[in-house]
Amino acid sequence: VSIVMYSQNPADYRFIENKGQLADIQGNLIPEQEYYVNSGPLSTYFSTNGFDVVYSKVDDDTSTTDTLWRINGNFMNSHNGLSITPQDSSSFFYNYYLPQCPNGLTQVYAFSGIKIQELYSGISVEYNSTLSGYSMLFALNPERMPETIDIEFVGQDSMQIDTAGNLHVYTGLGEVLYPIPNAWYDSNSVSVSYTKAGNIISFSTANYTGSDTLYMEINLPTMPVLGNSSDNLLWSTYFGGKYSDWVNSAGTDSDGNLYVCGQTNSPNFPITKGNSTANLYNGDVFYAKFDSMHNLQNASEIGGNRHDNAIDLTLPGNNYVYIVGNTRSSNFPIYYSGNKYHSNTGNGFILRINKFNASLDWSTKYGNSGSGEERYNAITSGVGGNIYICGYTTKAYFPTIPLGGTNYYQGNSNPQTGFVLWFNNDCILQWSTRIGGCFGITMPFDIAYYNRNLILCGDVKDTTTDTFFNIIDTLTSFQNGGNYGGGNSDGFLIEIGPKGNALFDIKWSTYFGGNKEDNLRKLCISPTGIIYTCGYTLSDSGLAMLKDASSQQSYFEPNYKSIDTSTDGIIAKFNLNGTQLWATYFGGKYADYCMVVKFINDTSLIIAGESQSLGGNYFGTKEYGNAYYQDSVKKTIKKGYFRHPDVFIGLFSKTSEQRWTTFFGGLISDNVRDVAYYDSLLYIVGYTNSPEYSTLFTPGFPLRNPGYPAYMQFYLPNDISRWSGYISMFNLKVSFPVTGFESLKQADHSFSIYPNPVSEGQFLNIRFKDVLDIRQIKVFNILGKEIFIDNWEIIDNNTIRIKIRNLQSGIYSVVTNPSKRGSLFLVINP
Q: Is residue 617 packed enough to be buried (19+ CB in 10 Å), middle (13-18) or exposed (0-12)?
């Protein structure tokens, strides 16, 4: 058994000398960490070139995983050959009896302060204990400036400096908060602020000339900041007013700012002063920007005398946000200058908004004044600030513009077709074409740009059998041109791009569906050119679309699980040349809709949608580490309420492995319309009429207030027929349990353990390189407590086997003792 004893309980935080009691996760000694402070869930280790903060989440709950998170703070360009010296003589000491020191280490002293002299020329640093924690104090000789000190942080998810000047360092287990430094010289206070360049934190002063010794003190954290939950839902707020509001689209920029748009009917919608051009609050467009600390920066309304709705937005990487949507207002604001394209005809609109001050820079309608309508569904951006828009029209005439050197161009033949528009970065229309067949209704719902190619998905609706939809097959592309006619609609995919001497031509296209109605709603493209698309279907046979990805990790559901006329979600994956890689049902017993797909980094895919299915075995929700998890809340309340949808969120690996899926919502109806991603933070937006309050059977809509300065709204109209928009944020870099043990490599030890991870009821094998001795093996949990194993089974002269039983899931250390020939980490999954 591991034992730690101390002479008495210190009343304050103490810096403990490392005499050999510290070991890493492999059991190797770490003498470079000369002192440390252990304050429970957060410990700090001190070396001559920096400090390391380690979060630990350890409990007795068998449903959770014990986890560690480490952040390194490195002093850049500091002197070499330094030493740490204690600042007092201590009477506090500890005695350690641990696997790494089996013979015991006695009288290990704990000091109230430690110091590094000449960290930089003329600059020293002290760490001092206080009754409430401990601090880092820099002393700078005259003529030395704080700008000399650079601290590089490594291991965090992200860092932000809030409007008050405090430094926030985010991890999957919580937040490390470093308050703004206190500084003084003689009896004068000095204003010091953090500056940030990537992962490097520096300091600047406003009223210090360098003529006296400057002292700069930072209170170091002793507890993690977890907000009001330990899961990865960090922020969740309503966003609206008195009447119905919908958040339809979201995006982020390179600075971590969040942009949203949608529709409001509320006279008290939270616009910022002076940014509204709306008239009668009869369904107006809204646009809003939140900074990286989730503080509302600006919000504006734009609209006319009738119904206006923003559907989608894009950020090309310049100073603007582009928004598309639909309007019925006769006086929708048209704004242009110079040679920018402008029109006041049609039902679709395009806005260009300055993302710094929310001013309207350019707006236009585009379409025809005849009977019918145009529906603008999606916008995307390409290189150089060019934007591309898709939608569909039911008007006999739509203003098309051919492009020289382009083979694909379609004029006004069938009034019920899709369309594609291309505007350059100065808002000049370059190309406008219809897209679709001769008779059917072609409705593109999403568009994506990749390396000069445009990919579109949507639906083709017709009851005739002679529909012509430009089906183009290649030697490699998935081709389903003969399967049309099942049900009232089929999905479609089409790629338009450079082909031969043409700038735009159809490279491949296909129907996508089965014997009944099929719909594709969203798509995205990974950085490596992999196309993902999603939607929903009623088809239960003739599904040429289904395809296993031939990987044991790939999620694959070949069975249509709906028991009535409800839909199932569908997800599919293609190469850019049209080769189908994977397609699967995704849903439960009742209606399910995959509404959003987003490739969020080089390894992960997000699917979001809506489900009327119950939880448990009826829908494939999956818990994962300390990630937020919610089962369906509709199943426990009165009959009929489960028909109101819950939002679902699913995380998949790039090999299509399902990692985490959860419901998200409250008592009544919850809907998702878009997701956005920045630096491990996932935003989901939509609308709900679920109240915030809990009932006897079910929780309210999941709200999370991270505190100042984040925007937070708890208000929702009492009338459940009205809707409120919402914005919610998850941290996707949570401490997920290792599934393939990819992050830990077996070192060159005298033994090996396999399989690793291992689950309850499985056999763990321990194999020595030479003749074994059972007495050489000991197992310790993450707290250093030895786990006694009495069910060894000798397989041969080099191998023993243990059946894992009655052990909590978590991380364990397998150590050779007393020969100290090595140690390995073992993960036990639930």
A: exposed
Model confidence pLDDT, tens digit, residues 682-718? 999 999 988 776 544 456 788 887 777 788 887 666 5
pTM: 0.66
The pLDDT tens digits of the residues spanning 753-766 come to: 778 778 777 888 88
- Identify whether the C-beta of residue 300 lies closer than 8 Å to the C-beta of residue 317: no
Closest to 436 in 3D by CA, of 494, 501, 357, 498: 494
Q: How far is 824 from 104, CA to CA, in rounded Å? A: 22
Q: Using CA atoms in the order 334, 338, 339, 345, what is the torsion angle rounded to 10 degrees?
A: 10
Q: Order of strands across the sheet with 284-290?
A: 245-252, 258-264, 284-290, 296-302
313 contacts 291 by C-beta, under 8 angstroms = no
CA 176 from chain centre, in angstroms, equals 19
CB-based contact 550:582 (threshold 8 Å): no
Could you give the CA distance from residue 172 to residue 182 in angstroms, rounded to a whole number? 29
Cis omega (within 30 of 0) for bond into 333: no
Q: How many CB atoms lie within 10 A of CB 515?
A: 16
Burial 767-788 (b: 16+ CB within 10 A, else e): ebeeebeeebbbbbbbebebee
Contact 560, 495 (CB under 8 A): no
Output phi, psi for 383, to 5 deg.
Answer: -65, 150
pLDDT for 830 equals 56
Dihedral sign of CA atoms 142, 143, 147, 152 in order: negative
Which helix (H) or strand (E) segment holds residue 753: the answer is strand 751-754
The alpha carbon of residue 207 and the mean position of all alpha carbons in its chain are separated, in whole angstroms, by 40
Residue with tokens 């700090």: 44
Place of tokens 């350059």: 424
